[in-house]
Structure formats: C-alpha cells, structure tokens
Amino acid sequence: MGRRVIPHVPMRPLWRCRSCGAEWPCQPARLSLLVEYRGDRTGLLLYLGALMTEAGEQLAALNPGHVPDLHHRFLGWARARG
Ligand SMILES: [Zn+2]
Question: How far apart are the CA of 13 and the centre of ligand 1, in A?
Fold first, then answer.
C-alpha cells in the first residue's frame, strides 16, 4: 500500500471524516468548503443544509431518541460574519 491522500469527506451514516475521524465537517473540510464556495455563501449554506438534513435522518436512525445539535455543527461556522 502506498501513501494515499484521503480527502476530508463524510463517512455515512456515521458522519465522521474519512480522513481524520473527526465529526464532519472537520476543520480541514470547513476550510476547503469556504474556498470552494468563496463568494457564494448562499450556495454554501444550501449545500450544508441539505447535508445536515441527510445527516440528521441517518444519525437519528442509528441512535433513536438522541437529537444532536447539527445546526450548530453544520451551519453555525458558515454564517456570514458581521
Ligand atoms: Zn477531516
């Protein structure tokens, strides 16, 4: 096995980062999303909102009765400042 660069993408249905194992979106994933969606904050929030919905359904199926704070995790950091 050679060295491979694993992108910071979510592992479904756990929604942990495939590369670093942190809760997705991890810090590197957030940075690359900010770069990718530079100048299109609305598009970024729509994209994250769709993923948040998907994550919410999958995490709820894994752990019924537990409602994680996905809003903060997916959208809190991406809001425009100021
Ligand atoms: Zn990561």
Answer: 15
